[in-house]
Amino acid sequence: MLALITGASRGIGESYARQLAARGYALHLVARDAGRLARLAGDLRTRHGVAVEEIVLDLAQADAAEQLYVEVRRRRTAPVDLVINNAGFGLYGEFADQPMPKIQDMLGLHLVTFTKLFRLFLPEMRERRCGAFINVSSVAGLMPLPYLSLYAATKAFMVSLGDSVGCEAAKYGVVVQTCCPGRTETDFHETAGVKAYRAPGGEQTADDVVAESLAALDRGRSLVITGRRNRVLAGLQRILPRRAVLWAAERVLRPVP
Ligand SMILES: NC(=O)c1ccc[n+]([C@@H]2O[C@H](COP(=O)([O-])OP(=O)(O)OC[C@H]3O[C@@H](n4cnc5c(N)ncnc54)[C@H](OP(=O)(O)O)[C@@H]3O)[C@@H](O)[C@H]2O)c1
User: Fold this and answer.
1) Which of 202, 210, 254 minimizes the C-alpha distance to 233?
2) I need a labelling partner for 239 at 20 to 30 A (CA). Which of 26, 49, 111, 230 fits?
3) Ligand 1: does its nearest atom lie under 6 Å from the Cβ of 64?
4) Contact (CB, 8 A) for 57 and 64
5) 18 and 44 in contact (C-beta within 8 Å)?
6) How far is the C-alpha of 13 from the C-alpha of 75, rounded, in Å?
7) CATH hierarchy code of domain 2-253
8) What is the distance in A from the centroid of ligand 1 to the CA of 127?
9) What is the signed CA dihedral for 235, 174, 55, 180, rounded to 10 degrees?
């Protein structure tokens, strides 16, 4: 079995790599940080005896998906069974203050590269009538979030595309999981520029998120909201009026001076 994981150099992506290697998967790991990828790959080869390829690539670039697809096909010895679209980052603060290059990178990574990778790897799975995608979205993709506005909007895109394509792909035996973690202990918040907001607490570890996601994949489930607190939050936002959700989110996420 072969899995391709984007954003594998740390955090949730690294946990997917570790847990899939323990299940015996060969891996293609993608990220920009060559040193971290090399150390992780070496460790996984030693611990689990699996084949690991490192692909160093900036997935926010316009033609990154096509480059990655060609590179994977060149290096692989078997078809890809599982594609994990995990690479991503947050942008915290008022939308009007966000630097245009960061906006461009987020649109490139979360929308363009994600969509193209989905489109590029799906036909072969459809042909073989097996395979799976795990698209790592977020509970932020289930509701509007002031101060994380573009992040939430791009993650909502992932939920919608994943649900629709998953419905089409099911009849070919291809599973599309949209994984929605809540606040998780990784470098994400530092990268996003989150200094302080009134977070309601209760972070999950990356290992817990991934264990839930892979257990759900074993059962063929399409939408996975990890963590009990996040499932309660997601349920509440479904029944509350949208303006109440916005009001509460604004209060929780408002930057603390
Ligand atoms: N942590 C949370 O609270 C949380 C909650 C919900 C959803 N998520 C989602 O979970 C996913 C993983 O985030 P994380 O929490 O594990 O954060 P993280 O620790 O910051 O890891 C992000 C990963 O994405 C990679 N990445 C970022 N930009 C990239 C680019 N332009 N090209 C290639 N790789 C890139 C990073 O690798 P390099 O820097 O080496 O390129 C890194 O491996 C993201 O999609 C995030 O939106 C996180």
Assistant:
1) 202
2) 111
3) no
4) yes
5) yes
6) 20
7) 3.40.50.720
8) 30
9) 0
Q: Residue 52 and residue 54: Cα distance in Å, rounded?
A: 7
Q: Is 186 in the pocket of ligand 1 (CB under 6 A)?
A: yes
> Treating both helix axes as pointing N-terminal to C-terminal, what angle do 11-22 and 34-48 enclose, rounded to 10 degrees?
20
Question: The tokens 């993608």 sit on which residue?
Answer: 30
Distance (Å, whole) CA 59 – CA 106: 10
Q: What is the dihedral of CA 241, 242, 247, 252, to 10 degrees?
A: 110
Q: For residue range 13-64, list pLDDT tens digits in order.
A: 999 999 999 999 999 999 999 999 999 999 999 999 999 999 999 999 999 9
Q: How far, in Å, CA of 148 to CA of 202, rounded?
A: 19
Ligand 1: which atom is nearest the Cα of residue 15?
16
For residue 132, give the H/E element and its range: strand 131-136
The reply to whether ligand 1 has any atom less than 6 angstroms from the CB of 61 is: no
d(Cα 14, Cα 206) in Å, to the nearest integer? 9
pTM of the model: 0.97
